[in-house]
Amino acid sequence: MTAVAAPNPLAEGLHDYRVGEPCIMVIFGATGDLSGRKLLPALYNLAKQRLLPAGFAVVGAAIDDLTDDAFRKHASEKIAEFSRTQPIDQRVLDAFLSGCFYNKVDFGKLDDFKALQRRLGELDTTRHVSGNRMFYCATPPPTYETIVEQLKAAGMATGTGFHRIVVEKPFGSDLKSARELTEILQRVFHEDSVYRIDHYLGKETVQNIMAFRFANAIFEPVWNSNFIDSVQITVAEEIGVEGRGAYYDKAGALRDIVQNHALQLVALVAMEPPLAFEANAVRDEKVKVLRAIRSITDEQVARATVRGQYAKGWVLGQQVGAYRDEQHVAQGSLTETFAVLRLEIDNWRWANVPFYIRAGKRMPKRVTEIRIQFKRPPHMTFGPEATQELDPNAITLRIQPEEGISLRFGAKVPSAGLRIRSVTMDFQYMTAFLVETPEAYERLLLDCMIGDPTLFTRADEVEAAWRLIDPIEAAWRDDRPPLATYPSGTWGPPAADKLLQQDGREWHRP
Amino acid sequence: MAPAVSTLIKPEAGAEWSGEGVSMNEVLAALKDIRTKFALAETQETELPHPRNCIMTLIAVASSDQEERRAQRAVRAIGNHHPAQVIVVRDQPGPRTGKMDATITTDIMRPQSSCAMQCEVITLRVQGSMGDHLSGLIDPLLQSGVPNYLWWVGTPAFGKKELDDTLKICDALLVDSARFDAPYRSFLDLTKLATHSHQRLGVADLAWARLEPWRENVAQFFSPADRQPFLKGITDIGVDYSGEGRGNRVAAAQLIGWLSSALGWKLQKAAAGTGGIVVAHFGADGWRPVQVAFRSMPKTHLAQGEISAIRIEGGAGGRTFKLTVMRDPERARTVRPEVGAGGYSPLHNAGGEDDAGLEIAQRKVEWHRDVLDENAEQLHHTATGDLPGENTPQRPAVFVRERRGQDNARVLLTLIEIGEGAPLRHIQQVDPEDEATLLLDLLSHGTQDKVFGRSLAAAAELMAAI
After folding, report:
1. Cβ-nearest to A11 among B2, B219, B407
2. Strands A163-168 and A133-137
3. To the nearest whole percent, how much of chain B has pLDDT over 90?
4. pTM for this one?
5. Chain B partners of A407 at a C-beta cutoff of 8 Å?
6. Residue B22 gets which letter from DSSP?
7. Given a cut of 80, is residue B357 above it in pLDDT?
8. Phi, psi of B319 (to 5 degrees)
9. Is the pLDDT of residue B372 over 70?
10. How far apart are CA B52 and CA B49, in angstroms?
11. How far away is chain B from the Cα of A14, in angstroms, using its nearest Cα?
């Protein structure tokens, strides 16, 4: 049983004081890419910000036969290469590495897990850790079941202290496999101890969508179908599949981006105000939105979706090849690298407000943004001539790369006559706040240590998203609508524009 | 928390203006001219000038060349991160009245994909009675709708009209109590001002921001559920600080003021002890009496008044604990490795005074210790005649000699001892002392800090008693 800590009176008033209890973080796949690029650098940066508690330890667990020192050397090299803060503070690094250990673990061997358990027990004593564990599966999803079963068999998932498991997306490849994964995890861990990490939710600007909506009184009254005409969500990347061809060719844009990142953004924009910024309250509201999204039926799929695949072209001044020429991609692949969905949310707030999602690779630039397009005033007082340069009001929430918010509204052009044109009022995160935003993994690892799952995806959220995606995926596999191609460096095939034109709208150019 | 390292947009030097013996109207006209030119220069063919993106006005009041240099350095650094308007007022006594020397400098920041921004630094050098009417100079320069922070770089003119009037047009006063002249008296004045000023006024102290790593480490120790009972079991606290005299105890008093006000302790009495140690006694219903010892410890690398260590000891639920947090921790200076209770270091030659020799000797000592440790029960039986397991022999301790780095003053070493277990060492780095960073830290977290307010009051009570 985990003892429940009362509020610490000494923590009051400490800015951003979010330090968990001392725990041991076991990284399965510690010598792999994710661990080296993201986890170890994120932990180092937490140490640098003094956010790791005294006694915190990392135990690397992987198939490689390494000593503690060899693992520390590996960690040191990866941190030097991938840390967001440079140069490396050697003293912080040394102190962090002194809490890093390694055990060779063959996931198929129970004895290796038992040896790992003994090691953790020793560290509990020497580092004053009361049995608290965080198991991070930085491994491919097919290994999750074996790891979880071995943790159970070795008695590592129970005992004093907390026992949390972190798994990376994708959470299944359809509704059926997502449910299977949940069942595997819940055989050993309670849902409250399962942390499904989607690093997108750790981004400050994604979290800020909630702050923007629910901490300000002026936006919420207009945040509904009475005032909002439509919502456009763009998740564009300029890169191709970058060596991930084998995975991507099976997944495609719909599963890789839309099912998780884009639908999370829809949920955050459309959710009702939660009672509190607390894990279940927030996630309950997100699930309600996902469930309220009208399923795209077999008949509607051709009219409400577009799929595309990039052909060769020019991106950022460089000539790039076609998707089918990428490594590990099937020659005649029909996998989409671009997806557009037109969604409708069947609830009081959003009736008849279309949500357009556009996600793709090899777009002209990397940009993620949400554009809330408002309706025009019911009566144009100034007449058509004065307002011909006036666009409808819009709020743009920019997620990356230049995080910020802008509001577009009309203003009179200074002159003797009366002419109104659109101007933009811009807020930029980078300049308005006096500290830099942390990397998403730093935030999420810290949340997991503290035991705050608000920014992690719950099982029912994952399932609700797959329930929406599965029928679209099925129709697309049936070549409906047909796969279109688009030159790299453009905003997708012409069908993407036509989809909005049929509604009398057009895409905002980010 | 330590502020994250920031990516900086490299500023470009913008327009400049200066004038000697000028009036305020001339300064305002020059400023308007600079803003108009900037807006037009940045306007693209089809666009109107961008609205100003200014998030605060920072007013720094300096009374000497050195203070002015510090203010200029810090405010420029802040301005390069954030589009602020900065006013530096150099208040100097002199015969001239009604005129001043002024300069305006600007830095332009161009983020990759948005409009350019301009940070303005307006420096006013005023003499004579004009300095008594600072608010009249500053008010016309203030931007509407953004907060105004008054940073009094030296010791504020407590109780004087020039400070009181200026505070009326500002949202917060920023000071550094560690740099006050007559620190004891000024600290009490600051407390009075913070207690009696209008509610909207925030008061922030850079010295308080410096205490954050100490507060974090102490709070962190008591956070785990199984350690929370230790809070009521605290019996002894020791605080070491650099420098002598009561004025140098301000930071130590603030730290203890924070602890006592957070935990509801009431000051019972305070008295000078032996060896220059000052002792304060606290008590509260349901708590054990707590004794706090303030000790002056010379530290070469620390400024006068800086805290060098805090030790918190006690016991609860049958377990004893000791938390020690040390800044710039002292290391063993002896050539040979020191070995604790076993005292068997003389058995091992240090092998030379260089690092390698010391390391070899250290390893031998550790090996010797481990052998003794593994056979401790048998050896104990041989030595005492007690049956194995009847009395548990004490583990010999080994003190490792560490190499002292040049920047050791930034090291914060935490030692945690719970029960009989070996101490857990936790090493952290505090950020290099930098006024701009501390100011940013205070500004980014707001200046309405009720914990600071109540700690300040408790510290003042303590200071008055000791």
Report:
1. B219
2. parallel
3. 37
4. 0.80
5. none
6. E
7. no
8. -120, 140
9. no
10. 9
11. 7
